[in-house]
Amino acid sequence: MKKVINTPKAPAPIGPYNQAILSGNTLYTSGQIALDPETMELVTDDIQTETKQVMENMKAVLEAADMSFENVIKSSIFISDMNNFKDINTVYGTYFDEATAPARETVEVANLPKFVNVEISMIAIK
């Protein structure tokens, strides 16, 4: 059984998708970018601020499914410039306990939606 997860505390989808889908005990999130959920404006002052907004958006989606970052088993990080990896990783790391952090891949890509610098998606289980 599939349950759609949407919350006004994260940016509204800008296409034919939902913020997340809960299937059984597994949550599959859509990628989050640094859109402010209230204004739908990008928060791209610097890469650390942008990454923090992405993670706060993801936190809201997880909470809408009664989960937290402790439930995350896999993260996918897409970045437009691998030179930003260290700063992105520093912010990302503040949301997880390193000993129990999820599996992850980080991939540099040519472009991302709205030409942002970072997009993150996650899989979580209850």
From TrEMBL:
Cellular component aspect of the GO annotation: cytosol
Q: Which residues form the signal peptide?
A: none
The record's annotation in Pfam families points to:
Ribonuc_L-PSP (PF01042)
Q: What InterPro entries does this protein's entry cite?
A: RidA (IPR006056), RutC-like_sf (IPR035959), YjgF/YER057c/UK114 (IPR006175)
What family is reported?
Belongs to the RutC family.
CDD domains in the cross-refs: YjgF_YER057c_UK114_family (cd00448)
Single GO molecular function = deaminase activity
Superkingdom assignment: Bacteria
Descriptive protein name = 2-iminobutanoate/2-iminopropanoate deaminase
Supply the source organism for this entry. Winogradskyella arenosi
